[in-house]
């Protein structure tokens, strides 16, 4: 979607030579009400795009941090309908791009056409499904595009050139590059697999590229900011939610981490210019 | 009607199956698919596998005519395919031998697996010991408690058994954890999936390695009874023993194929694992098939007295056979499975695994009204691993 909220945001940032901070939180962790406040804190701290996670009972791609976040959200009663309502509440007060981040089954159960219509109505801008390969993607992509929603796909260090071409073809908004093999979660340093993947993906698309998996600190964000158009951070935020949910400290800490990460990412461009 | 047993290039049986995994896993699945396609064409692979099946696992397994049980029930003539006599005590070794040869062909040095009842874990640990490969088995903590004997057997065989402490702490969670390990260690690790489930090519490959069950049984029936059975019965968790048994009979229009799911305590969601009693098509752990889920698309918890049937999804080829009307699926309660185990033990001197007892129970239910008919039951495993559960449920025997 050339003129989507996601595309516009990346274009604005590119014009300013600024890397995007893409922040993931599981909707409904610890409650859907709390998520609205957490997203506002992320935006105040400098997040440019929100990945709103739909909790799922069997998150095979996630490490323990996000897995537990999904368990908390489901225990608190989060449903896909509730997540969409949460997106609408965010949209009522903010223009920040929202990407629904989900496993396939809850969306399939809801129905793709209905989801596309309801997500669009709620102010959601795009959808990413972790367990939908490009081979199985066509009906889903068609439904989302019909409703004006972006479809973001994952590319991995293990993806063949043929698959990267399909990822480029089916993606809109941006492409999410998985920096390394493994599940989501904080790691000590940015993977050496990230740069070659960025270079290989560039051959297949002019879309913005965001790199995620294992990024938690300002120095990581700076390293990724040198390579890519965006930095995706998830588990580090969910860890803060786990530690501070229900306390007045949560939102200030979320905001502070977002600011630290955004500033880290920005440093990559300053050093590049110096 | 001709029913093709070959999935399409994307691994679909009818609409079911496919490959729904994170992008990182697409490469190892493609590697496995190609390795298997090459092996399938290689006579040396088939020769090595056949030799292991015969000399190591103990194939062919016997076909036993259960005369006392049949006479007691006063109806159909019941035959039992004795997969319980295989090395390690269940059909699972068939698939493990096939996949360990593939792992070797791919140059993998480490094998991971999930296990529910522990039979697949024991079979995996066994073939890893045989070929000297490093072995890690994921098992839900609830299943480790229920199947303590098999946990120890795996450790004795040199495998590392890792308990899974979240979710229902059963088979489903063990598969998720194995997938997380695989996604992290794809280069040197083969995921030796133990049922006809998951992403393509597993449902096809696991089916093929178990198809020897039906091929032997069909020939043995013709020899022993001079005819094909009227009905073939097998228990279905993911469905590997059942699909292995059914495969040879799919083209025999006169043979009814009956899969028996775990009816658990009752048919309220969460109390059973009967996917055709309340399930609907969905995606779980790489595969599109019938799955027990709630209205929001969250996968339901399941219950069965038998850990090996305690899983929310049925294999995709079964879903297709059900849609086509070629196989039908019924369920059997925990209580009926226990009674069937007792009856088979007392009538035939064969103590069945709790999983297999579900198939036996369906034969017991049908036989009285099917005089003159022949029923073939796949006895997928033996009951040694279940002795603790039998003791808990049949306390009166301890006091005798």
Describe the structure.
Chain A has 274 residues and is of the alpha/beta class. Chain A has a single domain, classed as Aldolase class I (TIM Barrel), CATH 3.20.20.70. Chain A has 12 helices and 9 strands. Chain A has a 9-stranded parallel sheet. In chain A, helix 8 links the parallel strand 6 and strand 7. In chain A, helix 2 packs across helix 4, helix 2 packs parallel to helix 12 and helix 11 packs antiparallel against helix 12. Chain B has 400 residues and is of the alpha/beta class. The termini of chain B are far apart. Chain B is globular and about 55 Å long. Chain B has a 6-stranded mixed sheet, sandwiched between helices. The chains are: A alpha/beta (274), B alpha/beta (400). At the A-B interface, helix 3, helix 5 and strand 6 of A face strand 2, helix 1, helix 8 and strand 11 of B.
Keywords:
heterodimer, A: 274 residues, alpha/beta, nine-stranded parallel beta sheet, 12 helices, 14% strand, B: 400 residues, six-stranded mixed beta sheet
Strand arrangement within the widest β-sheet of chain A reads 5-4-3-2-1-9-8-7-6
Strand content of chain A: 5-15%
CATH architecture of chain A: Alpha-Beta Barrel
Enumerate the spans of chain B where pLDDT stays under 50 for 5 or more consecutive residues: none
How many E strands of chain A?
9
Distance between the termini of chain B: 56 Å
Biggest sheet details of chain B: 6 strands, mixed
Q: Residue share in helices of chain B?
A: 40-55%
Radius of gyration of chain A using CA atoms only: 17 Å
Largest interface, with counts of residues having CB < 8 Å to the other chain, equals: A-B, 41 and 35 residues
Query: Strand order of the main beta sheet of chain B, please?
Result: 3-4-14-9-10-13
Mean pLDDT of chain A: 94
- Fraction in helix of chain A: 40-55%
Count of β-strands of chain B: 14
Question: How far is it from the N-terminal to the C-terminal residue of chain A, by CA?
Answer: 35 Å
How many domains in all of chain A?
1
| CATH H level, superfamily name of chain A | Aldolase class I
SSE ordering of chain A: HEHEHHEHHEHEEHEHEHEHH
Give the overall pLDDT of chain B as a whole number: 96
Oligomer: heterodimer
């Amino acid at each position: 979607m050339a003129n989507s909220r996601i595309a516009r945001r990346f274009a604005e940032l590119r014009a300013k030579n600024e890397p995007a901070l893409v922040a993931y939180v599981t909707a409904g962790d610890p409650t859907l009400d709390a998520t609205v406040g957490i997203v506002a804190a992320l935006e105040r701290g400098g997040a440019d795009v929100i990945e709103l996670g739909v909790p799922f009972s069997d998150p095979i791609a996630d490490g323990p941090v996000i897995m537990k976040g999904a368990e908390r959200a489901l225990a608190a009663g989060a449903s896909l309908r509730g997540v969409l309502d949460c997106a609408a509440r965010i949209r009522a007060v903010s223009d920040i791009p929202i990407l629904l981040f989900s496993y396939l089954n809850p969306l399939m159960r809801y129905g793709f056409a209905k989801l596309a219509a309801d997500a669009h109505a709620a102010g959601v801008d795009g959808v990413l499904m972790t367990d939908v390969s490009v081979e199985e993607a066509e009906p889903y992509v068609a439904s989302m595009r019909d409703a004006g929603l972006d479809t973001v796909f994952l590319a991995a260090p293990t993806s063949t050139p043929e698959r990267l071409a399909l990822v480029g073809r089916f993606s809109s908004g941006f492409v999410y590059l998985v920096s390394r093999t493994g599940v989501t979660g904080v790691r000590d340093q940015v993977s050496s697999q990230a740069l070659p993947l960025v270079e290989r993906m560039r051959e297949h698309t002019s879309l913005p590229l965001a790199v995620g998996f294992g990024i938690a600190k300002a120095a990581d964000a700076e390293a990724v900011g040198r390579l890519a158009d965006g930095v995706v951070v998830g588990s580090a935020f969910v860890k803060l939610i786990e530690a501070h949910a229900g306390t007045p400290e949560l939102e200030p800490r979320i905001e502070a981490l977002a600011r630290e990460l955004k500033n880290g990412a920005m440093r990559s461009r300053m050093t590049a210019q110096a | 009607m001709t029913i093709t047993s070959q999935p399409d290039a994307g691994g679909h049986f009818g609409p079911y199956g496919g490959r729904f995994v994170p992008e990182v896993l697409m490469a190892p699945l493609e590697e496995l698919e190609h390795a298997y396609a090459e092996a399938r064409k290689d006579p040396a692979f088939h020769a090595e596998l056949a030799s292991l099946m015969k000399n190591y696992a103990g194939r062919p397994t016997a076909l036993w005519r259960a005369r006392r049980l049949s006479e007691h029930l006063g109806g159909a003539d019941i035959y039992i395919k004795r997969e319980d006599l295989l090395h390690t005590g269940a059909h699972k070794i068939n698939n493990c031998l096939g996949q360990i040869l593939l792992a070797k062909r791919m140059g993998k040095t480490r094998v991971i697996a999930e296990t529910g009842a522990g039979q697949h874990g024991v079979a995996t640990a066994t073939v890893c010991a045989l070929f000297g490969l490093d072995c890690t088995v994921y098992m839900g903590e609830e299943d480790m408690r229920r199947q303590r004997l098999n946990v120890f057997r795996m450790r004795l065989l040199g495998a590392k058994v890792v308990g899974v402490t979240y979710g229902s702490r059963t088979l489903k969670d063990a598969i998720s954890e194995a997938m997380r390990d695989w996604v992290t260690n794809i280069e040197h690790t083969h995921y030796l999936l133990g049922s006809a489930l998951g992403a393509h090519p597993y449902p096809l490959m696991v089916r093929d390695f178990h198809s020897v069950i039906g091929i032997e049984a069909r020939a043995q029936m013709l020899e022993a009874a001079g005819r094909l059975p009227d009905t073939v019965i097998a228990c279905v968790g993911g469905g590997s023993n059942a699909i292995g048994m059914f495969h040879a009979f799919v083209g025999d229009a006169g043979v009814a194929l009956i899969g028996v799911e775990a009816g658990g305590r009752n048919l309220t969601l969460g109390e059973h694992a009967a996917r055709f009693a309340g399930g609907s098509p969905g995606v779980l752990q790489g595969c599109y098939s019938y799955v027990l889920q709630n209205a929001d698309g969250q996968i339901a918890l399941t219950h069965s007295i038998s850990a090996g049937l305690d899983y929310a999804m049925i294999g995709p080829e079964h879903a297709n056979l059900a849609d086509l009307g070629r196989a039908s699926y019924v369920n059997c309660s925990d209580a009926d499975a226990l009674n069937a185990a007792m009856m088979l033990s007392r009538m035939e001197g064969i103590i069945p695994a709790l999983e297999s007892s579900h198939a036996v129970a369906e034969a017991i239910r049908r036989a009285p009204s099917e005089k003159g008919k022949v029923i073939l039951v796949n006895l997928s495993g033996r009951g040694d691993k279940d002795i603790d559960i039998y003791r808990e449920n049949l306390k009166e025997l301890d006091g005798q």
